[in-house]
Structure formats: C-alpha cells, structure tokens
Amino acid sequence: MTAVLWAGSAAAGVFVAVFLVDGWTRPGYRSVRHPVSALALGPRGWLQTANFVCCGALIAAAGAAVFPATGGVVLAAAIAVFGLALVASGVFPMDAMRGYPPGSPDETPQRFSLRHRIHDAAGAVVFLSLPAAAAAAVFTLDGAFRVGYSAVTAAALLGLFSLFGRAWEDDSPRAGLIQRLNIVVGWVWLGLLLADLAVRAD
Fold first, then answer.
1. Contact between residue 5 and residue 194 where contact means Cβ atoms under 8 Å apart
2. Does pTM surpass 0.85?
3. Degrees, nearest 5: CA angle 97-114-88
4. What are the TM regions of this chain, as residue ranges (predicted)?
5. Which one of 32, 71, 98, 184 is most buried, counting C-beta atoms within 10 A?
6. Residue 97 in 3-state DSSP?
7. Which helix (H) or strand (E) covers residue 39, if one does?
8. Half-sphere exposure of residue 62, counting CA atoms within 13 Å on the CB side?
C-alpha cells in the first residue's frame, strides 16, 4: 500500500512537470492560451497522451490505497475517479483548434468529433472530482492544517474551474494560464496528501 501511495504522489508531480516543460518547448504552442490537453496533438502528442494515461493509472491505483489508509470511502473513490478520468482524457484527445497544432484554424469548430465530446466529459470529471476529494478530506483527515489546507484547496479549485470555464468559452488569451493554475493547485494538494498518507503508513 505504501509503495502505491508514493507512486501516486510521484505521478501527480510528474504530470505537472511534463506538461510545463513540454508546453514551454513545443513549437507553435502557447502555454498562456492553449489548454494542457492540446499537447496531446501534433507530432509530439504521444508525450502528453502517455502523461495522461500513465499518471492517471497510478493515481487511480493510489486512490484505491487511500481507503485502507484513511477509512474514507468518498475520499478514496473521488481520487480513483479522478485518476480514471485522466486516463480517459488521454485515450480520447481533443480536436485541433485555436491555432494548435500549427496550421489549425484559429477559431473554435462549429461541430466537435465524438472523441472530443468524450474528452470534454472526462475533463469535467477531472476538474470536479478533485475538489470533491479535497472536500471529502475535510471530513476524513485529522489535524487542523490538513483539514484547513483541504478546505481552502476545494474552494480554490471550484473557483478556478469556474474562471477557466468562462475564459475558455470567451477564447481568452489567458485561458491556458488559468487552467495551469487550477492544475498546479489541485495536483500539489493531491501529491502532498498521498505522500503524507504514505509516510503515516510506514
């Protein structure tokens, strides 16, 4: 169980590191505007696809290990669902749009493919299951810091998700930046939680 928790914690950190470095170094990709999911497109798209699938699988497995570590059914289930939704986000990539990959139309398509619609649904699960996990942690964990940090994280994630939704619909030039802030806040909380549980389980 301890090894699985450590693997999930590491996966949360690796996921963030991969999309940050890949986004900064990808030709034609604008991290401030384009979403992380767009990195799964183009010649180097396999890297983000693998990031989604591998890290998501490890986090889902860690979610299963959270239950015996905490006794929190909702917390464990929310983390496992989050990981599985990440895997689905990699299996079903988004459509090309808004200038990426280079040569794609700069606007949003009028109609989306089935895989894009599945990707959108998986993305909604990703960005709602993590604040649900943080909220569940408030009622599962002990210690004022752990509870307070989880409560602040849950509120921040819901607020950032709402901001990103509006920015995405408006094709804001800052949409990618807002999404990255959302991801960093949530994934850091998750990585620290899983690491803390792994230390306690030793």
1. yes
2. yes
3. 90
4. 6-25, 46-67, 73-92, 121-141, 147-168, 180-199
5. 98
6. strand
7. none
8. 31
- Alpha-carbon distance of 24 to 91, in angstroms, equals 23
What is the spatial distance between Cα 172 and Cα 6, in angstroms, rounded to a whole number?
Answer: 37
| pLDDT tens column, 93-122 | 999 999 999 999 999 999 999 999 999 999
Contacts of 73 (CB under 8 A, 6+ apart): 67
The runs of H, that is alpha helices, within the chain are 2-25, 45-70, 73-91, 114-138, 144-169, 175-201
With vertex at residue 192, the alpha carbon angle to CA 64 and CA 94, rounded to the nearest 5 degrees, is 70
| Nearest alpha carbon to residue 99 among 149, 59, 54, 41 | 41
pLDDT tens digit sequence for 155-188: 999 999 999 999 999 999 999 999 999 999 999 9
User: Encoding tokens for residue 166?
Assistant: 């509006």
Dihedrals phi, psi of 100, to nearest 5 degrees: -140, 135
